[in-house]
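Re: Re: token formats

Sure, here are both.
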Amino acid sequence: MFIFTIILTGYLTIMLPELYLLAVAGLLGAIVGSFLNVVILRLPDRSQSIVFPASHCPRCSATLAWYENIPVLSYLILRGKCRHCRTTISIQYPVVELLMALLSVSLIYRFQLTLTAAGYFLFCAALVVIIFIDIHHQIIPDVISLPGIIAGFLFSLVSDAVTWQSSLIGLLVGGGVLYAVALSYALLRKIDGMGGGDIKLLAMIGAWLGWQSLPFVILVSSATGSIAGLIAMRSQKKGGQTRIPFGPFLSLAALLYTFFSREILYFYHLYATGQWP
């Protein structure tokens, strides 16, 4: 029993700092997620600022008290309704907060407390904003993607996760591939099949993750997007006129690669060397 107590104490001594760090990372992620909800709501409207005014109910415009702005908890305590006008609060708010908390914890677990984790935190936050704005408005704001391309290349200069050569090739090829696809589709069908925002987004993904990520991102996003498109065609009954945003599928594939790049590259190697079973 004494030996077991010593082992347990030693284990907790090692694990508690790590658990504390993960808890702090989750809290930080949730707080940032709360701010991202503001960005998602206001950024598409050029007449609004993402800083001013303070958080308020979009229906009755009542300014929210601090205790109405606690990530996730406020939503649960208020039972998903505004305290002032009782309007239903979108489930998107706690979803974004929980998603950023999960991503933040996963980044610390995957990359530890490093500059790489901090950089990819910004990258993940940008992708989350893009996902929800594209779903609601079918646009990918240039104010995110264009600075994101530059930030991704600068990130490669200080991070050991991706080289600057890989980043440069990634942003050039990423943007070039989708531009070629969009141009070919437009020439053949005489209509635009892909927006310029998707092209810039893939260039941004290539800048942050390197050119090695592009086969996976393109394959996974195309497969999942095609499935979603077929479902949408069936439900909307618009045939070839059905339009769905492609940005969320690119972003989700990029998030998967961010966390599982080592495993994905390992399978690349098996396939390239003929060792795939």
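Second one below.
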Amino acid sequence: MGNFKDFLKRKNIDLTWRAYFVDALGAMALGLFASLLIGTIFQTLGDKTGIEAFATIAKYAKAATGAAIAVAIAYKLGCEGLVLFSAIAVGIAGNELGGPMGAYAAVIVAIELGKMVYKETQVDILVTPAVVIISGVLVAYAVGAPIQRVMTALGTFIENATQMQPFLMGIVVSVVIGMVLTLPISSAAICLAIGLGGLAGGAATAGCCAQMIGFAILSFRENRWGGLVAQGLGTSMLQMGNIVKNPRIWIPVLLTAAITGPISTCVFHLENIPIGSGMGTCGLVGPIGIYTAMPEGGANMWMGMALVCFILPAVLSWLFGLIFRKIGWIKEGDLKIDC
């Protein structure tokens, strides 16, 4: 057993929850941002401006989704050389057969097996690509379609439940996805994997915006303008260390999400596309996704977007923050981050 552990350590294989469900999922999200997400943005620009170049960029960016996921995960998990390069074919196959989560599963198995054989033979240039590609494609064939069906069914269930119970589900989806955004896992990858769009996607966006804008405003006295930008346009994950020290600092933004979620679903009926629903105000992707999902939304959409994504999270988190500071649940310095 000790020899096997030494072998895994030598091969830089980390069989832990964090490696596969924090690091790899986070890397997968980055791969999605660099391909499908940016492609979707350019597609929207092309549709609205009629500029053919935008549509062309979108086409090739979206086509690179599987490859981008593979490279991102392989890089994050410490792959090098032939393992990383061979993973590209696996990502393409996995995404084709099972969507982003199919690519995720296939790439994880393939690169870890690839690491095991990398530089272990005299014909490494043949063995490593063969092991990575064959194992990855087999996994994609075996589990890609079932994973995609499960993810789609879960997303459809949440969307249907939100349609039937927009108030209750508006609260649940907004709070839960918002929490996932701040936790060290990828809400964007999860929302895309289950195809969380439509009305539920709008609620998810509300929750993410509540976390990002909420923490940005809540912590302004500690972090000033740098923290405002880092959290409001970057990520609320920067507060995770502070949440561990004092979980009460999370309550104001969670209460905010519980309010803005049903406002999104019941008042403005905001919708989003899956790639934007778990992003919030990060790079303004959430609002861009709402516009993409509701191109004919008109004044109601713009007003809802302004209130749900920006104004209400700022005002409500500030008010709740004042109360929590007054009763001593949030103390000076509790929200300080390095920015």
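The chain has a mean pLDDT of 92. The chain has two domains: 2-152, 165-326.
- S.
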